[in-house]
Amino acid sequence: MTIFYFTLKRSFANLANLIFLTAAPIACIFLPAGEGWPPLAYGYAYFGIVILFVAIRLAQIMMEDRVKGILKRLSVAPVRYFSYLGQHLLAYAVILILQSAVVVLGGWIAGQELHRPWALFALYVSFSFAALAMALAWISVFRSKDAAFLFYMSLIVLAALLGGIILPLEIFPDLLRRIAVILPTFWFAEGLKSIASAQPFADNVRINATLCLYALVFLVLGSTRRMQ
Amino acid sequence: MSLRTERTWLANGWRLLHFGFLTYLWIGFDDAENTFILLLLLFLLTSLRWRFELPAVFLLPDILICVLYFPYTSVSYYALALPIFEWAQRGRWPFSLSVFVALGFVPFFSGWLLWYFVLALFVGFFLDRYARNLEQWKKEADEQRKARQELERVKAELLEAQRSVSKQAELTERYRIARQLHDHLGHDLTGASLALQAHAYAEDPEEAKSLLQEVKSRLERSTHSLRETVHDATPVAPIGIENLERALLHFQEIDVSLRKSGDLLSVAAYQWSLLEACLKEALTNIVRHSDATAAEVTVQVAGAIVRLLVQDDGTPRENNAQSESGSGLRSLNMRARALGGSLSTSADNGFLLVCVLPLEQEG
């Protein structure tokens, strides 16, 4: 588990990451609730965007390894690539789960209306896995760290907008609403709606399973070993 | 892009097109959120197949998922085109036919669906044939490469053997001449020398006369023996520079002049055979490819090398002759390299062939 511990340390090594990983989730707890929309307080919808940003920031560490040739040097060490990948992803998943726990627990302590905190926590965890896998697949395509991050930022904003996190989906034309279903952010927004409107438990399971499916698909696509 | 990568790209291209089509069907005609989960599941299975080499039996989950979705969406029928394609591209196209047969027993059936299945089968079949041809082509290319390497090895061995035989022949001939000189000429000359010494001490005139006659007859025999030895040692067929001169004598197409310099006797017989081959190849090339009216052949022996130059007065060509040299020149180049020398050609200023070979060090 050396790689796991080292990845945890590296994740908090620079200031930007530290702010993202600590301050952003705490700020989400204290954002006010909207009138009618979003279904939960603004912070709990925007936390989805935070998760997406955090996932790409963390996945960039692996990209850094690839760009600097660390991955090439690792290939001659007695460490399998899947072990390297698995321990990195585990470390990132732990960070994201902790963040989700902080947000849900903090909201519960601060007296936010969370309806079903456990369901919300499960949704955040599922979405974190999907976001992490998406980021992994995304960085596997790019060679430049900065280009990958910049393009992904634009993509996050677009996905959040189309998926119904920033604006309600109802204001979009019919075709866009249909296309939005393809985005993981749509399922995240659906999950929030489901929790707020006290939908049956099976509905929550369906949404979480879909997000896990996304995670699996992107994990398969992004786990290819690239040296450069 | 390698051919194998190209094939993978084609397969992935079809898979993506297929999912694009299913998404279009879903957005255009269905719109149920659960149908998207079907697409996501199928996409996951396809990604797994793309990422790992899974056996054909792993297509059964695809079919099972599609069948489970039959009551809910027509997209699931079209999704069956993917297993058809995957089976066909793995060479198991008879399995694909089972899906066609099953079409007759399902409630949803349309001509478009049939055509889509036929298209998937055709694309998969095409990719399978393509992959097989690719494998066959690679196998043949490998065999040819192997045969060529073997041929080159044999050729190099033959050249080495030729060189060795030439040396052996030279040594044997030296030994024969030495033996003949010793057996015949040597004995007679020694006898004549002894007879002359005896003559100096002879007191009887008759005996002195007899000794002189003995010397005379021995010297005559020695002269005859020497003439015979030289006659036997002289080759019947022309070798060396004479052979080149004879080749030029029989070449009547254009005017060719020969210049020679240096100690031509220091060139070994097997080197002359290569120089002769180079000369003939150069003259043939001039006649076939050049508009030259005259050519000059130069044979120089200088220091430790022998150099053959063939230069014609033809029109200069833009592209270098070396780049388009035929198998004859390539073979000669290889032979020259095998003897430690080189062969180069140029068409910049008429056709020029230069062959340089190292001479063998004496001793």
Descriptive account of the structure:
The complex is a heterodimer of chains A (228) and B (363). Chain A is an all-alpha fold and 228 residues long. Chain A has one domain (2-222). Chain A is 75% helix and 0% strand. Chain A is built from 10 helices and no strands. Chain A is globular and about 55 Å long. The mean pLDDT of chain A is 89. Chain B contains 11 helices and 5 strands; from the N terminus they run H-H-H-H-H-H-H-H-H-E-H-E-E-H-E-E. In chain B, a hairpin with a 2-residue loop joins strand 2 (294-302) and strand 3. Chain B has a 5-stranded mixed β-sheet with strand order 1-2-3-5-4. Chain B is rod-shaped, with a radius of gyration of 42 Å. The two termini of chain B are 57 Å apart. In chain B, helix 5 packs antiparallel against helix 6 (93-103), helix 6 (93-103) runs antiparallel to helix 7 (111-201) and helix 7 (111-201) packs antiparallel against helix 8. Chain B has 3 domains: 3-135, no CATH class; 166-233, Helix Hairpins (Orthogonal Bundle), CATH 1.10.287; 241-358, Histidine kinase-like ATPase, C-terminal domain (Heat Shock Protein 90). Chain B is α+β, with helices and mostly antiparallel strands and 363 residues long. Helix content of chain B is 67%, strand content 10%. Chain A binds chain B through residues 175, 178-179, 181-182, 206, 209-210, 213-214, 216-217, 220-221, 223-224, and chain B through 23, 27, 31, 33, 36-37, 40-41, 43-44, 47-48, 50-51.
